[in-house]
Every structure is written in structure tokens, then in C-alpha cells.
Write a structure and sequence with these properties.
The protein is of the alpha/beta class. It has three domains: about 5-205, Class I glutamine amidotransferase (GATase) domain (Rossmann fold), CATH 3.40.50.880; about 210-400, Rossmann fold (3-Layer(aba) Sandwich), CATH 3.40.50; about 415-515, GMP Synthetase, Chain A, domain 3. About 35% of the residues lie in helices and about 25% in strands. It has helices at about 5-15, 30-40, 50-60, 95-105, 190-205, 210-225, 240-255, 270-285, 295-300, 305-330, 340-345, 385-395, 400, 420-440, 495-505; strands at about 20, 45, 60-65, 90-95, 110, 115-125, 140-145, 145-150, 155-160, 170, 175-180, 235, 260-265, 285-290, 335, 345-350, 355, 375, 450-465, 465-480, 485-490, 510-515. The strands form five sheets. It has a nine-stranded mixed β-sheet, sandwiched between helices. A five-stranded parallel β-sheet has the order 14-13-12-15-18, with helices on both faces. The longest helix has 22 residues, at about 305-330. It is globular.
Length: about 525
């Protein structure tokens, strides 16, 4: 599923100005968008074949052309209508973007003589002008290219170079067209943020008014306009950050006309259901419907060991349960969801064609289309860090806003093998101990996730001179920024010792605690 013409125009028209980013297939496109938003400037990503429509809808103050894996001289390489360069809007091409500008405007791109340039490189600034103003004359940048600019188009001049790359940065200041062979959006480019700020704020003069307070007011207004004075919304509340922020935002807009549905699938962490009820029903006074479907889920999962079958069963049962409850709330004609911008961004595949990168919009699977309800997605154009900032603006507690990610299928993907309540109960207790010990010491602030995993492996132990033969438990602690990659982290030894002692002594059914010291890749963060 991709954004429809109406979706794209509807979102863009609310945010005239800002930066429009064209995705030529780079893995860094979302990072470019986030870097721009960190400056307080609205940004949006599109694909080449939708560029004309987005230009008219958004009326951007600047355009950034991303990198990409292709060579511009290949016959089917991604391209744009060159008319975009005649609009008078400042343009910055990054890597492939620079090479596309070069070839389109009459220059020449060819394979790099040294076979390419990858990783950290020392760049020499030869003409700072505005784009490189304030950048050290010698600076470390991140390169990743197999082609290079062999001859610049007329009107361009070299701003920087590296030893193997004669054009590391270039500009046609008369037409306000700029290009970088390196990637300023990655942290490995030491002064990349300064370069982007120079382009976005100084050259393009973009408005830096994209801030949580402004966003909240804007979202509340738009929800009211969409739902109207009498419309009602039903929202599947998982207790996670996205659905929680969406719920409080919609509730601020329409009050008691929001109806939240929380499904207890029996795969939740200790205290999860009680926490949701206390916060949303008792504190925020939101109309909350809790559906106890624990037996239904566990019956369906009985004897199932394959992780993909588990996920599909959980997704299907969730949809059935939600559908039944939504039909009871038949006065609600709108369906609220915590969909985020990464869920709906279109990207460019390596072959140059547009590829939708849509993932499920709620905690376990796609909601059925035959609910015949209009979607209300107030977070649809926001990144995760922006959602957290809005949550703080709305007054949500840090314990929810800064909580670690929890997989949609819940403990089902942390309980390897067949799922039973007899195995879930000790896992739930062990996980609670890990969270309590990490969070009570403030160690969680630098961690992405920290949790327990139950293995269907029994081992011999000795407790009180008695032989035990019980399951093993694994502790998984990782750091990450986006879950795409992750490093394992070692907790202080005294904390590990206490976690191990507590689990073995307090949790029946577990007699051995192990550590997972695997990074992603090659491992994944979750075990299933």
C-alpha cells in the first residue's frame, strides 16, 4: 500500500514550505529527513515519479536529492524531470543526487579510478562559500560511492575535494544548486550537521517552526476538522508509545467521543493491563474497553512452535477480537491508529522502481479493510522521536514515553517453543525482575531493550540439596538508535549477579540464567 494522491496532498498542503527529499534508493533517506526536522524544519520524502505532484502540493522552500545504489549512466537508473531545476528552489544533491545533477546539466560522471571511496575520508575545503561556511579546512566525512564526477557542468565550481575524489562538494551559486559527494546526514561526517544547516537555514531560509507545541495544536485542530462535531473514533490501544500518544491527542481533540479498545491477549508483561487501565481510564478518563481474550489466544496457540505461525495466529485472532468489539461500538465511524511516518514512506528499490515499505499499523497485524471506517492517523507524518516529544508535551509519564519497545506478538516471541501459561508465568516474572533491576539504577536510559527469554531447554540444578530439572532463561540487553543494527551491552557485574540470584530464587520453573552476547547483524534483537 502506498500513499494515495489524496493522502499526499492532504498531508503536504498542511505544511507548505520546508524541505522535500527525493529518495533515489539510499538507506539513509529517513536519516536525512530526521536531520532536517531536528533543525525545527518540516521535511517530507517522496519518490521520483511523484515529484511533480508533491512540488505543487507542498511548495517546498528547498529540495534535497538523496544518494542511491545505482550509476546515473545506466539505462534504467532513477531520474527526475529536469524541469524541477528551473523552479528557482535551492537544490542539494547528495552522492547519487550530485551525480544526477552533473549528468543532467551537461557534466560527466564515470567510474572512480581508484575503484570507489568508502568509509571515513579526509576532505579538504578549497572554497567554503555559504554551504561549507564554518567547516574546518580539513574535515572527516563519510563516503560511499563507486562513481565520481569527472567534469562539472558549466557554472559549477569545486568547493571541496578528497585525495581520491576531485569533487567532494560543488556549487552553482547563481542557480542555487549544490552537490556533495559525501553523506552529511550520517554521524561519521564530523561536521555534516553544519553543512545541512547551512543549506536548509541559510541558503534556503526555511522556517524553523516545526516544534512539539506547534505540532500538538496543529494535530488537535486537524482531528477536530476531520471527525467533526459529532463523529466518534474507536482506537486499538496497545499501551505502547505510538497508540498511547495517538489516544491522548485524539482525546484532547474530541473528548468522550473517543473509544479505546485494549485487548489482553495473555502475552503481556507483568502489570501491563493494570497500568493501561490506571493511566487511561482513571487518570485521563478515556472511555476504555478492556477485552479479556487470554484463553482465546492461548487456545489458538496450543502446540504451535513455529514463530511465523505464532505471529500469524496472534494477528488473525487480534483482528477478530477487535472487529467484534468495534461492531459493538457501531456509532464510531472513524478508526484511530498510531501509524508513524516510517510506516508509510515509499522508498526506491535498487532497480529504480518505487517500492512501498508499509508495515503493520498496530501491534500485531493489519486491521481488516471491511471495518468500513475512515482512518484517523494524527501521527502519520511523524518520526518516533517526534512522537515521544509530543507525548511529553501532552504530559504523558516518562515511564510510558521512554519505555523500551515491546514486540507486537508480546511474550510469544520470547517464549521459544510451544506457548503455555505454565511457561509464560515464569517468563513474565523473570522479565519483570530484569526491568526492575535495570530501571531502578537508571541504566535503561542508554539502552534500547532489556528483557528475558525463556528457552525450551531444561538443565540440572541444585537447590537446597535437592536436584532440580528446569528451564533456562536468557538475558538480552542491547543498545541501538533505530533497531536496524544493535550491539549487545554488558550490565555491571553486580547487577547481573542480583538479576541471576533473584530469578533463580524467586521464579519457579527457571534454574539457570544465561547472557546473550550477539549483535545485530548477524543475530536479531528478538529471538523469534
Amino acid at each position: 500500500m502506498s500513499e494515495t494522491h489524496q493522502d499526499a496532498r492532504g498531508s503536504a498542503e498542511e505544511h507548505h514550505g520546508g524541505v522535500l527529499i527525493v529518495d533515489f534508493g539510499t538507506q539513509y533517506c529517513q536519516l536525512i529527513a530526521r536531520r532536517v526536522r531536528e533543525m525545527g524544519v518540516y521535511s517530507r520524502i517522496t519518490v521520483p515519479d511523484r515529484m511533480g505532484m508533491m512540488l505543487e502540493a507542498m511548495q517546498p522552500q528547498a529540495i534535497i536529492l538523496s544518494g542511491g545504489p545505482r550509476s546515473v549512466y545506466e539505462q534504467d537508473a532513477p531520474t527526475l524531470d529536469p524541469a524541477v531545476l528551473e523552479r528557482g528552489v535551492p537544490v542539494l544533491g547528495i552522492c547519487y543526487g550530485l551525480q544526477w545533477l552533473t549528468q543532467t546539466l551537461g557534466g560527466r560522471v564515470e567510474p572512480a579510478s581508484a575503484g570507489g571511496e568508502y568509509g571515513r575520508t579526509e576532505m579538504e575545503v578549497v572554497d567554503p562559500q555559504v554551504l561549507l561556511d564554518g567547516v574546518d579546512l580539513r574535515s572527516t566525512v563519510w563516503m560511499s560511492h563507486g562513481d565520481q564526477v569527472a567534469a562539472l557542468p558549466d557554472g559549477f565550481q569545486v568547493l571541496a575535494r578528497s585525495e581520491p575524489c576531485p569533487v567532494a562538494a560543488a556549487a552553482d551559486t547563481a542557480r542555487r544548486i549544490y552537490g556533495l559527494q559525501f553523506h552529511p546526514e550520517v554521524t561519521h561526517s564530523a561536521q555534516g550537521e553544519r553543512v545541512l544547516r547551512n543549506f536548509v537555514l541559510r541558503i534556503a531560509g526555511c522556517r524553523d517552526d516545526w516544534h512539539p507545541g506547534n505540532i500538538v495544536d496543529d494535530k488537535v485542530r486537524r482531528v477536530r476538522e476531520q471527525v467533526g462535531e459529532a463523529g466518534e473514533v474507536v482506537l486499538g490501544l496497545s499501551g505502547g508509545v505510538d497508540s498511547s500518544v495517538a489516544a491522548v491527542l485524539i482525546h484532547r481533540a474530541i473528548g468522550e467521543r473517543l473509544h479505546c479498545v485494549f485487548v489482553d491477549n495473555g502475552l503481556l508483561r507483568k502489570g501491563e493491563r493494570e497500568g493501561v487501565e490506571a493511566l487511561f481510564r482513571d487518570e485521563y478518563h478515556i472511555d476504555l474497553h478492556v477485552v479479556d481474550a487470554r484463553k482465546r489466544f492461548l487456545d489458538e496457540l496450543a502446540g504451535v512452535e513455529d514463530p511465523e505461525r505464532k505471529r500469524k495466529i496472534i494477528g488473525r485472532v487480534f483482528v477478530d477480537v477487535f472487529r467484534e468489539k468495534a461492531r459493538e461500538l457501531n456509532s464510531a465511524k472513524f478508526l484511530g491508529q498510531g501509524t508513524l511516518y516510517p510506516d508509510v514512506i515509499e522508498s526506491v528499490a535498487a532497480h529504480g522502481g518505487a517500492t512501498a515499505t508499509i508495515k503493520s499499523h498496530h501491534n500485531v497485524g493489519g486491521l481488516p479493510e471491511d471495518l468500513d471506517m475512515e482512518l484517523v492517523e494524527p501521527l502519520r507524518d511523524l518520526f518516533k522521536d517526534e512522537v515521544r516529544a509530543i507525548g511529553r508535551e501532552l504530559g504523558l509519564p516518562s515511564s510510558l514515553i521512554d519505555r523500551q519497545p515491546f514486540p507486537g506478538p508480546g511474550l510469544a516471541v520470547r517464549c521459544l517453543g510451544a506457548i503455555t501459561e505454565e511457561r509464560l508465568a515464569p517468563l513474565r516474572e523473570a522479565d519483570a525482575i530484569v526491568r526492575e533491576e535495570v530501571e531502578s539504577r537508571g541504566l535503561h536510559q542508554n539502552l534500547w531493550q532489556y528483557f528475558a527469554v525463556s528457552l525450551p531447554v531444561q538443565s540440572v540444578g541444585v537447590m537446597g540439596d535437592q536436584r532440580t530439572y528446569e528451564n533456562a532463561c536468557v538475558i538480552r540487553v542491547v543498545s541501538s538508535t533505530d533497531a536496524m543494527t544493535a550491539d549487545w551491552e554488558l550490565l555491571p557485574v553486580d547487577v547481573l549477579r542480583r538479576i541471576s540470584n533473584r530469578i533463580i530464587n524467586e521464579v519457579r520453573g527457571l534454574n539457570r540464567v544465561c547472557l546473550d552476547i550477539s549483535s545485530k547483524p548477524p543475530a536479531t534483537i528478538e529471538w523469534e
